[in-house]
Amino acid sequence: MSTPMWKRVIARILEALLAIVFLAPLVWVIICSFSPQAGSAQSDGWGINNYLTLFNYQAGLPTYLFNSIVVSLIAVVFSVVVCTLAGYSFSRFEYPGRNLGFMVTLSILMVPYASLLIPMMVWFKDIGLNDTLLGVGLVITLFQLPMSTFIMRNAFNAVPKDMEEAAMVDGCNSFQALVKILMPVVKPSMVTVGLLAFLEAWNNFMIPLYLSSSAKSTLPLAMVNMRQQTMGVIDYGATEAGVVILLIPCAILFLVLQKYYVKGFMAGAVKG
């Protein structure tokens, strides 16, 4: 039975209204980053002076972008590798403490990560990871583990064990079956885990604030340091330019990977 025309029209109108609600702030920020504003470098006429201010701030925009990219890549690589192996272990192997280990992993979600940053800062100083991009990336990975492991476990649960058993009959061990047979099947979930890790690392402010100095600042932290100018006046123009730069990689990645993102979240939705 087909849906009545009036219901389809109402649904499309509601979708358009929701799109406007979500897109309007983004469009407004982009326009304001080029428009004249008092107290900003672009005080007269339209132009790119706000972006030039951001580009030349202290160490320079390329340095902060490089730091953000390195931290994001570390978080993505470690999150995908660790959570894929953890999800495979929790899904496929029977061993004492498996369920307890899974519950302990999920329990990290219950801990406010701000409460752990000062102890981690002290510990990282002892082991030489304080004020390093590697340390920031590893801490971000830690807080990505619960949800990402949950996603990967459900993804592996949704794959029939017959595929893995057939590969083992042909001579594969568990690791070879994972790499050659299962990973291509759960690729959408792996992409989802990587995308979530990138978005968290790219936009994270709190962890770099505690664990890195100004020389190792990521772009969100540099933006906060830059936005307050002479006499406490906030440079909204440069701040909006920074928001646009932060937005571009996230929007591109999401548009390119959205089909995997949707499939990744749907994997294991029925069989979990």
From TrEMBL:
<dbReference type="Pfam" id="PF00528">
    <property type="entry name" value="BPD_transp_1"/>
</dbReference>
<dbReference type="GO" id="GO:0055085">
    <property type="term" value="P:transmembrane transport"/>
</dbReference>
<feature type="transmembrane region" description="Helical">
    <location>
        <begin position="100"/>
        <end position="124"/>
    </location>
</feature>
<feature type="transmembrane region" description="Helical">
    <location>
        <begin position="236"/>
        <end position="257"/>
    </location>
</feature>
<dbReference type="InterPro" id="IPR000515">
    <property type="entry name" value="MetI-like"/>
</dbReference>
<protein>
    <submittedName>
        <fullName>ABC transporter permease</fullName>
    </submittedName>
</protein>
<keyword id="KW-1133">Transmembrane helix</keyword>
<keyword id="KW-1003">Cell membrane</keyword>
<comment type="similarity">
    <text>Belongs to the binding-protein-dependent transport system permease family.</text>
</comment>
<keyword id="KW-0812">Transmembrane</keyword>
<feature type="domain" description="ABC transmembrane type-1">
    <location>
        <begin position="65"/>
        <end position="257"/>
    </location>
</feature>
<feature type="transmembrane region" description="Helical">
    <location>
        <begin position="136"/>
        <end position="156"/>
    </location>
</feature>
<feature type="transmembrane region" description="Helical">
    <location>
        <begin position="64"/>
        <end position="88"/>
    </location>
</feature>
<dbReference type="GO" id="GO:0005886">
    <property type="term" value="C:plasma membrane"/>
</dbReference>
<keyword id="KW-0813">Transport</keyword>
<keyword id="KW-0472">Membrane</keyword>
<dbReference type="InterPro" id="IPR035906">
    <property type="entry name" value="MetI-like_sf"/>
</dbReference>
<feature type="transmembrane region" description="Helical">
    <location>
        <begin position="177"/>
        <end position="199"/>
    </location>
</feature>
